[in-house]
Amino acid sequence: MRFDVLTIFPEMVLNSAMNGVTGRAIENGLVQLSVWNPREYTSDKHKTVDDRPYGGGPGMLMKYQPLKDALDSAKCSSIAAENVKVVYLSPQGKPITQQLLNENAGLDQLILVAGRYEGLDERFILSECQEEWSLGDFVISGGELAALVIVDAISRLLPGVLGDEDSAQQDSHMNGLLDCPHYTRPEIVAEKQVPAVLLSGNHKEIKQWRLKQSLGYTWLKRPDLLLGKELTAIEESLLEEFKIELKYKKV
Ligand code: 9WO
Fold first, then answer.
1. Which of 75, 70, 71, 55 is nearest to 118 (CA)?
2. Is pLDDT of 50 > 90?
3. Of 44, 49, 89, 99, which one has the fewest beta carbons inside 10 Å?
4. Of 52, 63, 90, which is best to mutate to test ligand 1, by the most ligand atoms within 8 angstroms of its C-beta?
5. Catalytic positions, please?
6. Global pTM value
7. Residues 228 and 147 occupy one common structural domain
8. 132: which strand partners?
């Protein structure tokens, strides 16, 4: 899969993406990442990418033309790509969920528009962007960090990017539940023992314990996630066990 990011801070995107899982995916050719700087598509002496808002008010907006020309270059650079989507990243967008990311992991090319200043000329959003996505109800200084989040989250869904060991299927949220707790050596830390079942070597029991903890932690920390989810009879009874064990722990 190929990602293209429109940004006036291309190094910010490239430098971050070159690390860790995404960096390896790019090195291995499983993911392609290109950046397109609107500033390189200006023709005035000052390379102007921003201008004042009509109607007045504080701040500046990104001009249509440098964005449009950068976008056209991104599109032209991959003539073979059929399944292409252009997404603007802003707090006005659709909230990003694991499901939204899963649904878009099959694209040939995802073009992410990272705005700066107070936003873009609305006509670029309307005529060039198919969708608008948001990380959540807060404002950051530009879309680059959001673009990096999306490149990372989608890359780890692509075949071959994660090893079998840390398959995305094991990730928190992949099954609509939170991750279970994890422990590593030593066996006692701050007077707390590792749960005995994890030392038992009984893989069936460990699996069931982890599911119970996932259900319990989701119920404790994010009860909203359970409202939209059908639990199986086994899951229901594991969650009841968790609640009983929690009460027992409290007294
Ligand atoms: C800045 C600003 C300053 C004064 C008054 C109102 C204002 N609004 C903004 C603003 O929303 N700036 C945005 C900065 C313009 C588009 C790019 N920027 C951005 C993207 N901020 N936050 C995001 C973002 C993207 C995805 N998910 C969460 C936040």
1. 55
2. yes
3. 44
4. 90
5. 91, 118, 156, 171
6. 0.95
7. no
8. 88
